[in-house]
What we know:
- The chain is α+β, with helices and mostly antiparallel strands.
- It has 16 helices and 16 strands.
- It has helices spanning 10-26, 80-87, 105-110, 118-121, 150-155, 189-202, 246-252, 260-264, 283-288, 296-309, 311-318, 338-348, 397-408, 423-429, 432-442, 451-455; strands at residues 62-66, 71-75, 92-94, 128-135, 140-143, 164-175, 179-187, 204-205, 208-209, 212-219, 222-231, 255-259, 324-334, 354-359, 378-388, 412-413.
- The chain has an eight-stranded antiparallel beta sheet with strand order 12-7-11-10-14-15-13-16, with helices on both faces. Strands 1, 2, 3, 4, 5 and 6 form a six-stranded antiparallel beta sheet that branches. It has a two-stranded antiparallel ribbon with strand order 8-9.
- The two termini are 41 Å apart.
- The model has no long low-confidence stretch (mean pLDDT 93).
- The structure holds flavin-adenine dinucleotide.
Amino acid sequence: MPTTSDLASTLDHDQAVGRLRASYQRIPAGAPVRLAKRSSNLFRPRTTLETPGLDVSGLTGVISVDPVGRTADVQGMCTYEDLVAATLPHGLTPMVVPQLRTITLGGAVTGLGIESSSFRAGLPHESVLELDILTGAGEIVTARPTGEHAELFRTFPNSYGSLGYATRLRIELDRISPYVALRHVRLGLDDLGPAIESIVADGTYGGEPVHFVDGVAFSPDEAYLTLGRNSDTAVQVSDYTGREIFYRSIQQRSTDALTAHDYLWRWDTDWFWCSAAFGAQNPYVRRIWPRRLRRSDVYHKLIGLENRHQVAARINRRRGNPDRERVIQDVEIPASRLAGFLRWFDAEVGMRPVWLCPLRLRGSESWPLYPLEPRETYVNVGFWGTVAIAPGAADGDVNRRIEAAVAEFDGHKSLYSDAYYDRETFDRLYNVAALTAVKERYDPDARLTGLYEKAVTRR
Ligand SMILES: Cc1cc2nc3c(=O)[nH]c(=O)nc-3n(C[C@H](O)[C@H](O)[C@H](O)COP(=O)(O)OP(=O)(O)OC[C@H]3O[C@@H](n4cnc5c(N)ncnc54)[C@H](O)[C@@H]3O)c2cc1C
């Protein structure tokens, strides 16, 4: 259990916010503003900045956990890894814990967070009770669902820092048992959507309660839903931080059990399946790859090195292979259209496997910048890798086709990675008119980079 000394004190927090504000004032007007953060899960490469970033030191902790009221006060740049470490000893967890350890609470609330509780708990911003935001005007305001800053509260999700930066968030917490019992259920593509809808409707499958749902389609003929159930006991638990690999276990066994901690981080150890690209799934390499370095942030740094030095790309070219296009996306498709989208994706893009995670807004109102329909069940389809650029095609073509298909299947695309929309389409899909109205109030001098500039022009 973390001691109170592990928690950030209110005084420390106030001082850290003071440093953040001072660092904002030091950035010359007209110069781009960016967080000076050590980790990032943003996937699009960004232009390098000359100006120093915002000082977020001292904004990375948990301020308090209220186990009775089931809430926590958390600093904006606190990673989910640290947040979970503070809540789990109380048998509590954030309502939605994104899979990658270094995603921060502020990042998930201003960006996107989807995990296996999202079919009942929605998105991370739906469990925020209030948040302090450093606005573009340099002020700290406390935004809540009602009151003076309610419009900022609702427009903040999916604004990716274009309206301001969350420095403190009060969030609701959920109960979690010490163990999560798993069932891996193989289903045909056409059966996935109906099975998900039925679990959403009554929280059970085959007569057993379901508290968590996600899935993997290895191919159009081999798809699974992994159903998790809170459990106070387990006869035996698996460990996928060692030699065994979680995603492979889905094909190999029909039931399993993990500690709650290992369940929450089951995808981080191998970055879903993406660690294969670095050899980390080769048994010999895995044996010597230190366990503490089998983490998504380590792989992310390796990708950063490749982006800078292009070693693999050069070797690829020297071998006479075509250049490759990065296709790293998460898209939300209505459950009723899932099978059609997966068939289209496999035929046209052909990347395997893909991650599936049902989600449904927890509340009855849509959120302006990522307009999912309330009461509609979506499935997040995640695919992360590269495809060969076909002769005569250009880098970005496959991503553009995916953007068009997502629209045809009535879906939405998250903005943490590459986006190619023209401005008009982007403005329509992400409701930039609503963003602009709020931005004029909270960032009157337009000091913060706009959403289109961040998401599409990579600033
Ligand atoms: C391969 C891959 C797979 C992913 N899969 C998933 C997934 O399945 N489910 C999921 O939940 N998410 C997923 N993500 C996306 C991730 O949740 C988002 O990119 C999230 O915004 C990253 O948060 P971060 O804390 O790392 O922020 P950063 O990467 O540091 O920043 C992301 C953006 O958020 C802004 N930002 C960061 N902190 C704050 C703050 N406190 N206040 C305001 N703005 C802020 C930054 O300005 C920036 O524009 C995935 C990302 C990758 C790369």
